[in-house]
Amino acid sequence: MLQSVKKVRLLVVAAAVSALAACQTAPSPPPPAPVATPQYTPRAPTTPFGASINTIVPQLRPDGLRQTINRDIGPLETLWHVRAALNVAALSCTGAQYSRLVSDYNAFIGNNKKFLRNANNAIIRKYRRDHGGGYKQAHDRHQTSLYNYWSFSPLRRPFCDQAVQVSQRAIVTKSEDMETFGAQALAELEKPFTDFYLAYEEYERDLDAWRRQYAPEQARDAADETINTTGLTKGG
Hints:
Blueprint: H1 2-23, H2 75-92, H3 101-111, H4 113-131, H5 135-150, H6 156-170, H7 178-214, H8 216-229
Helix pairs in contact: 2-3, 2-4, 2-6, 2-7, 3-6, 4-5, 6-7, 7-8
């Protein structure tokens, strides 16, 4: 009888333990490990028209114009710069849409032979006054720089597009109206360059922001380079 009572007690204790265990809440499973989100670095900004990263943008003058080879020249030299631009276009603009440039240029020269000859003579006299015995070398350097300016290859297409428009007016403009035509034509021929300079400055700002966010070491290097080269690349 005593053994039966003990067995009953053991069964009651075991049942109580089981009931207590059943009432306890099972521990929550550990939270899943955080999924690493891939970090993508956007590509660095690129130069407009695929220009060199070392392109130097002419400074902006107080009058709102860029300090280029086309600044501070008289009416005759302005027309001469237009003539040089049309000459570059006739030689370098290829494609059906530019096929008229050669004949337009030749007609422009033929129609205004005397005016252009007088303009060139006046320019030569100016160089003689300003440079003395070295005037020819100074004039040759200027002409080389002028042709190089108009031959800036990244802007070949927009420059050629403008040259076609200008050349069509050049062949119907009378010699007595050449000075007025020259001033208007020069501004039109320079427009692709002016737009490019603005776009390039925007690219430089975007690149600086990209470096500061994604490549701080490059930003520091670029800042050091700017400090070290100030006055070396923008002179002359």
